[in-house]
Amino acid sequence: MHRKTLAELAAGLERREFSSVELTQAHLARIERLDPALNSFITTTPEIALAQARAADERLAKGEAGPLTGIPIAQKDIFCTKGVRTSCGSRMLDSFVSPYDACVVERFNAAGAVMLGKLNMDEFAMGSSNETSYYGPVKNPWNTATVPGGSSGGSAAAVAARLVPGATGTDTGGSIRQPAAFCGITGLKPTYGRVSRWGMIAFASSLDQAGPMARTAEDCAIMLQTMAGFDERDSTCVDRPVPDYRAALGNDLDGLRIGLPKEFFGEGLDPAIAGLIHAAVDEYRRLGAIVREISLPNMHLSVPAYYVVAPAECSSNLARFDGVRFGHRCENPTDLADLYTRSRGEGFGAEVKRRILIGTYALSAGYYDAYYLKAQKIRRLISEDFRRAFEEVDVIMGPTAPSVAFEFGAKSADPIAMYLSDIYTIAVNLAGLPGMSIPVGFSNGLPVGMQIIGGYFSEDRLLNVAHRYQQATDWHTRTPAGIAD
Amino acid sequence: MEWETVIGLEIHAQLATRSKIFSGAPTAYGAEPNTQACAIDLGLPGVLPVLNREAVRMAVKFGLAIGAEIAPVSVFARKNYFYPDLPKGYQISQYDLPVVARGKLSINVDGKALTIGITRAHLEEDAGKSLHEDFHGYTGIDLNRAGTPLLEIVSEPDLRSAKEAVAYMKKLHALVRYLEICDGNMQEGSFRCDANVSVRPKGQTKFGTRAEIKNLNSFRFVEKAINHEIARQIEILEGGGEVIQETRLYDSVKDETRSMRSKEEANDYRYFPDPDLLPLEISSGFIEEVKATLPELPDAKRDRFKAQYGLSDYDAEVLTASREMADFYETVVREAAGDPKLCANWVMVELSGLLNKDGLEITASKIDAAGLASLVRRIADATISGKIAKQVLETMWNEGGSADDIIERQGLKQITDTGAIESIIDQIIAANPEQLAQYRAGKDKLFGFFVGQAMKATQGKANPAQLNELLKKKLQ
Prior knowledge:
A: 485 residues; alpha/beta; B: nine-stranded mixed sheet; three-stranded antiparallel sheet
């Protein structure tokens, strides 16, 4: 059953080829067997899963099922789940059991999906390799000596290893797209405001966005259909109708205007990846698309701007983890300052501390204008670059990441090198645009992802563009050796 | 050297919304600790704020009432600092772009009219409370207050004495209650004040170094703390010292201010726009909608009272000091259908005396406006004299009942029958031949003696005007 895509499983459930309980048990068994080597789950929730599966089977029997009813999924451990530990990959929240569900979790529950557990991630979503998790790194199923990418590395690895047909991720600077690329799966970061952030533990509020991670664009469409939509509890969530994503998948791509930004193909890009992207673009030409080179002149400013804005917001967002009301508290604090410094010192890992320090500095009196305000100006310039580009093209394509998955430890000593692995994805978050990554081939036996960027709220088009490519190619069906069975 | 004081006030008015500024939790005061705080107020991971429309409406109402500009776009910012009763580690406030800017308020001090500038008024959330008692060396945290909406009203440094500061604060206090945007309860902290105080040699234009005195929660403390601070600063300056910029706390028990933290120790709040909240846009339509709900404001009401009821400046000022007082007075006038000045006197002097004695607000008066009006009517129609009326009022206050019932039951009806009064006068004159002789010999003072005797004989019920007239005639 694990070989089937989410859409195929939904069809199987509908036809009663198997029950949700059977499906759930099969996936739980795979997790038990394969995940010790991968470490993609922080928490598994078999009891909840089986109860949800039984309820789903009843719904299916009554004919009250939707496309996600009875489908096993897993949540990135950044989403609050009622009664279940929600750790955010941090020692700080190792003991935190959320009293409420995130909006995304509520919506999957309402749709009748089955939650298998909570997925590993970089601590507080800060990282590009999953090496910052308090629960240890996730291994890339394609080569367990390499990283799965981050921060949604657990989600990407679990989907790639067929432990779950679909998982949620969050993307602040590439955290859905880059691990999707490293693990050879399909991931979509929606437009900022498309999916509610209620109950999603904030890293950088103006950049964070939840999205689906699955094997195919079609599966992402099914998941996004449930995730997207207005939620009055999130003031940044946009009240705008959600289109029928699956209905748009079949549209043909005749005359589709594709832009290739020259800034995405310059220095620092692995030539093998460049070759695969061009090959994928050629495939789009065959599907009727028109390709032209474009320019996003301020792209080189995106990483520095991001590493001011995101740490600034995180330094404030993470202030609530103070050992007073919930989360880690140090033993026997002597006074208030000791309680704060030791609880936070012990609870947070090195990368989180680095970003809190950078952000605190950037917001300090006397530095605010030079850093934070300037970064916000750059953000506007980058948005403007995209706005101009979308006057000429419908979608932008390029590499998702400059390299394939790297080995553990390769970049962990050099934060700048690590930050540059998000060089192509960060601008999309700064502009608030939707972006996808789809598998387009392999280099040295590791998957390569291509990024597709669209205008605001063009998720339907992105999914359509990705789906048509997946209809014509089979890169997305490749399965890591050793876990195929 | 002659010194001039410069004062600016920052007043925090708790807005009278039913729910909190960024959550749906109730704002009720006095509940069991941590029972009025929801996930958002607790700052749990993943929660997000949603702005309370009612709080914005109230801020706009205030802005309109002080003739201020209502910002078409204002921004919520995070003020970052660590404190156990600040759940998120930041307070959501407004910084660069407040919702209300550049208003003014007129005050009256010793008969002098002054206009005080209001720099800005912005919306923000309150923090919780740290409880240091009864926890065996630990500190308790009560987050019921966390997230309560506040309007911080910042004045220009236009005030020149503690007296002016108090007059300004009282005026503002009346205004927010007129507008029904704040209950004004100072004991519960619904209306509190920080004062920025500095002194400078008279004639100097540059401001002196200021000290900020925190958390003054009564008019009396504001006056005492400011006066104390002025004296402290002058003493330092006259001794050749320098005032240092710092935050000071007023100790009402010792009647002194003491240093809380210096400028160097001050927090760097690292303000930045809150990314969880979009800029607040206020349309002209919304402003018009709010404008339509504005009540008659204190100054307008005072002027109307003077014109409509012929009251003095002082009486009009006192009667419009609160909306409740003004409403009470106008009900008395309407019900009594008579002399507005007489009504003013009975509300301001006699009833207020009883209220003060029992420490009650006009809204808790034991005699309602209609009851007082019926008493005033009996004075106006000469059923009883003013002196008897005071007696009736006391009975109404202490025992309840209507004025007419009390007058009837106690037989207090004034004697207006000329024949009856004349016969009493005749008896008194007959009984006091000596005094009569002296009076007729020119000792005019004895007129009072005869009045007294007549009142004594009638238990004060003789109509005073009639009695005077008849006595004069008979004594001639």
